Amino acid sequence: MNAAPLLVSLFAVYLMAAASPGPNTFIVTRLALAAGRRPAALAVAGVATGNACWLVLVLGWSQLLFDRVPELARLLRVGGAVYLGGLGLHAFWQAWHGRDLLSRAGTEGAPPGASSFRSGVITSLTNPNTLPFYISLFAATLGPRIPAWVRYAAAGGVLVLCVLWYGGLALGFSTELVQRGYRRWAGVINYALAVALIAFAARLLEGLG
Questions:
Q1: Are the C-beta atoms of residues 48 and 162 closer than 8 Å to each other?
Q2: Domain that includes residue 44, residue range
Q3: Buried residues in 138-177 as b, exposed as e (16+ CB within 10 A)
Q4: 113: left (phi over 0), alpha (psi -120 to 50) or beta
Q5: Of 85, 121, 165, 208, which cross-links 201 as Cys (Cβ 3.0–4.6 Å)?
Q6: Could you tell me the pTM of the whole model?
């Protein structure tokens, strides 16, 4: 099985979604702006830990259900397409109205020191969007006919990208240059996210007719 196109598209969608404002982005950015790079880096470690927990849950839970309900794979692809398509429309709305994470992140109440890691874990685990997003994102790789190595490669790649992306935010958003650049390109990022999510949703629906 040539899984490269599927994995590349999955990673691209994840990166675009991570670039859109959300709880994980807010905690890392807020710490970078208010407390500096080290607390933000600790929050990144916490966010990655929380994401790893969600990925383990999604992969283990889905395989168990697929063994018992084979038709679930088809339903999951349809549900995932609807969810990701909705996120794409929301990203388009955000871009249209000029929303960016710096205007909402703020700098007040940033947790200091070691508590930054705990804040990252809690933020990741309590994010109501994480579980449905991962289920939808992995809908294309969770079917019973997909080799197990593809699922694990997808999960491992997402986790690596999680660390790289949020780590980049922790390093970059402590500098004024990156903040100015993000404000300039925030709309483009959200439009690109909208296109990527809707395209991936359409791909999930291919072959289901």
A1: yes
A2: 4-205
A3: bbbbbbeebeeebbebbbeebbebbeebbbebbebbbeee
A4: left
A5: 85
A6: 0.69
Overall domain count for the chain:
1
Residues 147, 1: Cα–Cα separation, whole Å? 8
CA–CA separation, 199 and 197 (whole Å): 5
Alpha helices (runs of H) in the chain, residue ranges in sequence order = 4-19, 23-34, 37-68, 72-96, 102-105, 115-126, 130-137, 148-172, 176-205
Could you say which residues of the chain have pLDDT below 50? 103-112
**Token output for 69:** 């309900």
Predicted local confidence at residue 106, as pLDDT: 46
Q: What is the pLDDT of residue 110?
A: 46
Q: Which two tokens stand for residue 188?
A: 């483009």
Residue 194, both tokens:
């909208």
Each residue's pLDDT tens digit, 132-147? 788 777 766 666 677 8
**Total residue count of the chain as it appears in this document:** 209
What is the structure's pLDDT at 144? Answer: 62
